Amino acid sequence: MSLDFTFETTPRILCQTGAAASLASLCAELGATHTLLITDPGLEKAGLLADTLAGFASAGQAVTVFTDVQADPPQQVIEQAAEAARQAGADLIIGFGGGSSMDTAKLVALLVGCPQSLPDIYGVGLAKGPRLPLIQVPTTAGTGSEVTPISIVTTPTHEKKGVVSPLLYPDIAVLDASLTTGLPPAVTAATGIDAMVHAIEAYTSRIRKNPVSDGLATKALELLTANMDTVIDDGGNLAARAAMLQGSLLAGMAFANAPVGAVHALAYPLGGHFHVPHGLSNALVLCPVLAFNKPAAEPLYAELAAAVLPDQTFASDSEAADAFIAFLSAMVARMPFAHTLREVGVTEADLPRLAEDAMKQQRLLVNNPREVSEADALAIYRAIL
After folding, report:
1. Are 158 and 272 in contact (CB under 8 A)?
2. Does residue 382 contact residue 351 with C-beta atoms inside 8 Å?
3. Residues 193, 276: contact at Cβ < 8 Å?
4. Which CATH architecture has domain 185-383?
5. What is the CA radius of gyration of the chain?
6. What range(s) does the Alcohol dehydrogenase iron-type/glycerol dehydrogenase GldA domain occupy (predicted)?
7. Has this prediction a pTM greater than 0.85?
8. DSSP states of 138-150 as a string?
């Protein structure tokens, strides 16, 4: 690990139950005259926007709501949202929801603030500014998108491509645990595992691992693993929900600076081709990738074992790493979601295409602690078919 590093994150974070009702005042602070709030139809139907919209009405501030976000946001939906912002004359964007809504909001703020073609900016450092002011409000404890400079898009050819730029950090991240209490157990589980993956992959990242990201990843994993079972069994537990949101935030801050690896690389084709939610995709491939990486990541897994299993002692790094993998495997196994690729519609015949597409994620694979070949990817997919 190099002691020479750069660390960036969202400049302002508000973590407070009920904070969503004060979004209008935050928009006013940023000088907004007309806000576009980007979300998905499920959140609108669930009534989660009510307090926020009441706050805008009370303040006499203009707001337009775009509710057509789709999971793994397709390029055309992002472009439609950008056009909606232009038509509304929006001068501030709010992303309100899971990773798909927040990723869409990032790109809308960018495309409207500085007109550019979305396909032209896929990659690292290609986006141009300025962007519109941006506030992110996560309603799941998973993606950490409120503190990352990354937005993932599904292209018309079903590939997952990323826009990576410091311009995508929002001005403010608002964490309101009351927005997460109604999440179903399956969604809670998948998004929680997603956040754990961010922490683990940041801690084991080969490229930009650093002391700050390590500290954040470790604390994130402690919070997430300690509260996961509680939020599955008692979704209304505000303290546990807040801890999960904070764990997701810290994991997001970590992997924004020490980027993720093979778990994400193998998960993306599942989302692109089979529309498997991102958190579930990560959960499906997590444990076999951990086992695959163990020869290269054993000392790091041993350090993470000390964080999540503090009452246990181990005779060696190998024993500690095995205990860490077993701990995560047992947690994933008891979660209320699919556990095999067949359960999400994948067949044996699909595996070579998935492995081939995983190899296209070199932006991620270079961060993995162990080199992954196409044959390795195929074996991992086959192990969870």
Report:
1. yes
2. yes
3. no
4. Up-down Bundle (1.20)
5. 20
6. 11-176
7. yes
8. ESSSS--GGG-SE
Q: Are the beta carbons of 31 and 258 closer than 8 angstroms?
A: no
In this structure, CATH architecture of domain 12-179: 3-Layer(aba) Sandwich (3.40)
Of 175, 39, 14, the closest CA to residue 99 belongs to: 39
For the chain, give every domain's residue range.
12-179, 185-383
pLDDT 10s digits, 328-353 = 999 999 999 999 999 999 999 999 99
User: What residue has token string 């992002």?
Assistant: 78
Token pair for residue 192? 């929680």
pLDDT in tens, 30-59: 999 999 999 999 999 999 999 999 999 999
Other Cβ atoms less than 10 A from the Cβ of 16: the count is 13
3 state SS of 258: coil
Per DSSP, what are the bridge partners of residue 21?
Answer: none
Q: Which has the closest alpha carbon to 272: 158, 163, 381, 354?
A: 158
For Cα atoms 305, 306, 310, give the angle at the middle one, nearest 5 degrees.
115
